[in-house]
Amino acid sequence: LAGGCCALAAIYLMGKFYVANAGDSRAIIIRNGEIIPMSREFTPETERQRLQFLAFLKPELLGKEFTHLEFPRRIQPKELGKKMLYRDQNMNGWAYKKIEEDDLKFPLIYGEGKKARVMATIGVTRGLGDHDLRVFSSNIHIKPFLSCFPEVRVYDLTQYEHCPDDVLVLGTDGLWDVTNDKEVAGVVMEVLTSYEPNDPCRYTMVAQELVVRSRGVLKERGWRLANDKLGSGDDISVFVIPLGGPGNYT
Question: What is the extent of the structural domain holding 180?
Answer without folding.
Answer: 4-40+150-242
